């Protein structure tokens, strides 16, 4: 019998945020490893994962081709499908296309607008949905459906660990408004300069975080990992026994290290450092 597959991505969650959290449920799957993302922000990182690649260990003294080969060979073990090779993913290089070819029903439930239904990542999904809020993991759980005669794949993108790190019912009134790529495009008209004066009448002076605020935000990300961990017990109760989990982050985050905050156009180890764990449903 083929395994169901649940691929869960804690958006923007740093490796040290994850390992500093007090966890009771997620680590029943496996102990977390420190790995590295191929990209520093949400959309390209998810694209790489949906090609079938995993966060890497940055190994020395090996050819990249060997790393990719071993990574793709792992899918046979994960899915309980023998003798899967890299060639099975060619030419589309798509995990979802491969899974559909193996009879899987493919589902995507995402929190970040940059992953919305109109983007190219929504390929080879039977169902793909952007949640109404960025912190809807508990509501996602109510949308999980498994059919006995077909294996299922779920991509779950969780926004609780993404700025502003708020949970349902919490407000962000005291925090600056920071747009991601989706928000930047959405508000581009606000950035148009007056052709006569060269000024932007709608632009307000931006206030950056101080050290104490950044420490509070980092602790909040850790707290939100613990919140998500509590919901994993409900998740384990929903999914069938033959379900394989991959739980990771798409990228990390800077909280003031060397003058950096956030991720994206940031070349810093903390932005690429992620946690990774995988295993069967406990």
Would you give an account of this structure?
- The chain is an alpha/beta fold.
- It has one domain (4-280): Alkaline Phosphatase, subunit A (3-Layer(aba) Sandwich).
- The chain is built from eight helices and nine strands.
- It has helices at residues 15-20, 42-49, 64-79, 95-101, 137-141, 181-186, 211-238, 269-272; strands at residues 4-10, 33-36, 105-110, 127-130, 152-158, 243-249, 254-255, 261-262, 273-280.
- The strands form two sheets. It has a seven-stranded mixed beta sheet. The protein has a two-stranded antiparallel sheet with strand order 7-8.
- A hairpin with a 5-residue loop joins strand 7 (254-255) and strand 8 (261-262).
- 35% of the residues are buried.
* Contiguous helical run count: 8
Which CATH architecture?
A: 3-Layer(aba) Sandwich
Number of domains: 1
CATH class: Alpha Beta
CATH topology: Alkaline Phosphatase, subunit A
- Beginning-to-end CA distance, first to last residue: 18 Å
Q: Supply Rg.
A: 20 Å
User: What share of residues is helical?
Assistant: 25-40%
Order the strands across the largest sheet as they lie in space.
2-9-6-1-5-3-4
DSSP strand tally: 9
Q: How would you sum up the global shape? A: globular
Q: Strand-residue fraction? A: 15-25%
- Given the helix and strand composition, which structural class is it? alpha/beta
Unreliable residue runs: 181-185
- Please trace the helix and strand order, writing H or E for each element: EHEHHHEEHEHHEEEHE
């Amino acid at each position: 019998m083929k395994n169901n597959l649940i691929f869960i991505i804690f958006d923007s969650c740093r490796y040290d945020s994850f390992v500093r959290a007090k966890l009771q449920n997620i680590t029943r799957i496996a102990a977390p490893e420190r790995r590295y993302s191929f990209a520093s922000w949400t959309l390209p990182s998810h694209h790489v994962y949906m090609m079938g690649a995993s966060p890497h260990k940055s190994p020395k003294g090996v050819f990249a081709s060997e790393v990719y080969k071993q990574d793709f060979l792992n899918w046979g073990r994960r899915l309980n499908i023998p003798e899967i090779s890299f060639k099975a993913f060619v030419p589309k290089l798509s995990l979802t296309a491969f899974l559909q070819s193996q009879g899987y029903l493919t589902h995507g439930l995402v929190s970040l607008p940059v992953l919305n239904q109109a983007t190219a990542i929504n390929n080879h999904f039977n169902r793909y949905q952007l949640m109404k809020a960025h912190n809807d993991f508990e509501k996602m759980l109510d949308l999980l459906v498994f059919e006995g005669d077909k294996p299922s794949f779920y991509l779950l993108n969780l926004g609780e660990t993404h700025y502003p790190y708020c949970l349902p019912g919490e407000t962000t009134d005291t925090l600056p408004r920071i747009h991601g790529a989706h928000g930047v495009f959405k508000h581009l008209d606000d950035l148009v300069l007056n052709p006569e004066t060269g000024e932007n009448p709608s632009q307000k002076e931006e206030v950056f975080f101080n050290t104490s605020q950044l420490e509070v935000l980092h602790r909040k990300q850790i707290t939100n990992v613990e919140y998500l961990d509590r919901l994993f017990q409900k998740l384990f109760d929903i999914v069938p026994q033959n379900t394989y989990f991959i739980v990771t982050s798409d990228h990390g985050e800077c909280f003031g290290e060397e003058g950096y905050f956030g991720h994206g156009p940031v070349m810093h180890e903390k932005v690429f450092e992620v946690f990774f764990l995988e295993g069967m449903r406990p």
